[in-house]
Write a sequence for this structure.
RNA sequence: GGAGGGGUGGCAGAGCGGUCGAAUGCGCCGGUCUUGAAAACCGGAGUCCGUUCACGCGGACCGCGGGUUCGAAUCCCGCCCCCUCCGCCA
């Protein structure tokens, strides 16, 4: 949600920023509705004031035995007019909220115009090779997944489960050491949580809905983590959380894309980083989250590149986004494994998350940021980059103390 | 699934038809006192719209919406949310 005051105060700047992502025209409708609302509200309130005065006069008149017919008649006329104006104001307000809710965040000036590779890190040891499905064999069981739940659902089995849990535990400990509180959040949430994080009304076609209970399955723990402090005044910022959860995505419109393996599935697990910070700190926090994502990839010995995502590709809530793309020998190219966004005050305003500035003063809207720590896509990258000539896989030694196997034997053919 | 209770300021919590934007306590901010702090005492502080150069002033807002009434935080109706107890399941 954009700041309505900012829109009123400097519409041209907001329009210019929105123009970068092609949403400038919608601002005019917002301004028009805001004008309507303010006009109707102002008039309704001044009539209300007159009503109150008349009410006092009627009471006084009645005490002195007067029937106050003229005043009562005047009161009736006022009531009708106030009601009508009130309805007009409410209609304008409702339309205004809807328009405002549909506007995306203002892009950061340093957000790229088009996807822009920031750097490539790590030597690519293997340009091409077997893909993760071939390497995993039945340890990624898509046949049973499809039979039980449908296509794009997988059973992870055997050593891959140990690998996932080691990855998760290793990442969690790293994050705890950096001040993140580990969290297992709800994955079913109310509409407000999705609205508040900007996924609704933006991406409803991606979201599973449990209609009997009016709940939604979340595609990322970001939704529940952001909502953790909804309607609160958070006293000590920064607050950092590391959420582990399964994630659910309908992947509507992705037909035919990335259909091999578990690169794009309806359900997967993820450790997500989420930060609440003061506005002046969000830029630095974004770099910090990116650095953590890179540190993880580096310690797992995965070659990757960092991409500053172009404004046209930003989600509604993001002002700026970096993706880390790991090299996948099975596909012979870089593919997205992590993503970190600075959503500035966009989610925090929708969710009403504020903080009290040091030394007191009015509560201000906080900034929020999110980033991927580890997901199933890390498993893909580990398999494909760790593969041996014989079809076995060498896994990073750092994960072994966390229960991961040091290597995987070749999948039987 | 059944039966109750409740949503009021940062928090707790009173108010149940006009004198209520709202008692009281805690917390917060400023001041007095103190070498400093604590305690004590004094004062301040919600959001939104309009108006003003400004101090300020006017108005609206007690979960959301509708109704009754000259007048609603208070009464009635609908919706949303929270809690407790019983049952059921883990």
């Amino acid at each position: 949600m954009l700041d309505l005051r900012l829109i009123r105060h400097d519409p041209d700047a907001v329009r210019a920023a929105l123009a970068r992502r092609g949403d400038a025209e919608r601002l005019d409708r917002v301004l028009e509705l805001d004008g309507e609302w303010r006009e109707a509200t102002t008039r309704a309130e001044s009539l209300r004031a007159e009503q109150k005065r008349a009410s006092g006069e009627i009471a006084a008149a009645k005490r002195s035995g007067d029937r106050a017919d003229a005043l009562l008649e005047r009161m009736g006329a006022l009531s009708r007019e106030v009601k009508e104006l009130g309805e007009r104001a409410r209609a304008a307000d409702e339309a205004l909220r809807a328009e405002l809710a549909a506007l995306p965040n203002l892009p950061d000036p340093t957000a790229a115009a088009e996807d822009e590779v920031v750097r490539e890190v790590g030597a690519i040891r293997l340009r091409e090779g077997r893909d993760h499905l071939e390497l995993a064999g039945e340890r990624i069981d898509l046949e049973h997944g499809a039979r039980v739940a449908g296509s794009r659902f997988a059973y992870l089995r055997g050593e891959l489960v140990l690998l996932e849990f080691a990855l998760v535990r290793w990442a969690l400990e790293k994050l705890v050491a950096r001040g993140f509180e580990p969290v297992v959040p709800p994955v079913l949430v109310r509409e407000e949580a999705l609205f508040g994080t900007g996924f609704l009304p933006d991406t409803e076609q991606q979201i599973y809905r449990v209609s009997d209970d009016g709940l939604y399955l979340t595609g990322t723990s970001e939704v529940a983590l952001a909502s953790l402090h909804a309607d609160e005044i958070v006293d000590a910022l920064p607050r950092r959380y590391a959420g582990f959860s399964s994630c659910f995505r309908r992947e509507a419109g992705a037909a035919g894309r990335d259909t091999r393996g578990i690169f794009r599935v309806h359900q997967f697990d993820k450790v997500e980083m989420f930060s609440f910070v003061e506005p002046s700190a969000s830029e630095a926090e974004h770099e910090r989250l990116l650095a953590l994502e890179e540190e993880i990839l580096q310690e797992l010995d995965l070659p990757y590149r960092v991409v500053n995502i172009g404004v046209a590709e930003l989600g509604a809530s993001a002002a700026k986004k970096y993706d880390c793309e790991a090299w996948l020998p099975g596909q012979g190219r870089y593919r997205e494994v992590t993503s970190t966004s600075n959503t500035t005050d966009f989610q925090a305003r929708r969710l009403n998350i504020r903080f009290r500035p040091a030394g007191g003063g009015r509560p201000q809207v906080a900034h929020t940021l999110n980033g991927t720590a580890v997901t199933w896509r890390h498993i893909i990258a580990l398999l494909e980059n760790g593969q041996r000539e014989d079809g076995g896989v060498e896994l990073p030694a750092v994960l072994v103390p966390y229960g991961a196997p040091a290597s995987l034997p070749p999948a039987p053919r």
User: Anything to note?
Assistant: Chain A has a mean pLDDT of 91. Chain A has twelve helices and 18 strands. The longest strand of chain A covers residues 267-277. The radius of gyration of chain A is 27 Å.
